[in-house]
Amino acid sequence: MVSHTRRHFILQAAGLCAALASADVAFAAPPLVDENDATASLLGYRAKASSVDAAKFPKYHAGQNCANCRFYTGAPGDTAGACPMFPGKSVSADGWCKVYAPRA
Fold it and tell me: What does the alpha-carbon distance between residue 78 and residue 66 come to, in Å, rounded to a whole number?
């Protein structure tokens, strides 16, 4: 039979608190891509597709944004989501970059 002492209980409670505190950090959303980031600049990323310079990026057409790009993995209705072009970061659902490819 296992003896449950006050010391055992306190150690278990401390472990549970530590696990819950670290779980909150583990599920935190990745940071948003900064438009001035080197990769973002290289790919012409804009957090708002409506601010894309169409003269500089003739591939851009109104209505294109990260939310309807095949690479965007955010859920419908999310304001941001993951994109393999920017590992460890989130892109704005309203964003755009020159790697844009429409969903099939």
Answer: 11
Q: Rounded to whole angstroms, how far apart are CA atoms 81 and 71?
A: 10
Determine how many CB atoms are found less than 10 A away from the CB of residue 22.
10
Helix, strand, coil shares of the chain, percent, nearest 5, are 30, 10, 60
Q: Report whether 58 contacts 48 (CB < 8 A).
A: no
What pTM does this model have?
0.72
Cα separation of 36 and 14, whole Å? 42
Domains of the chain: 30-92 (4.10.490.10)
The count of other CB atoms within 10 Å of the CB of residue 67 is 21
pLDDT tens digits for 25-46? 556 789 999 999 999 999 999 9
Element (H, E) at 97: none
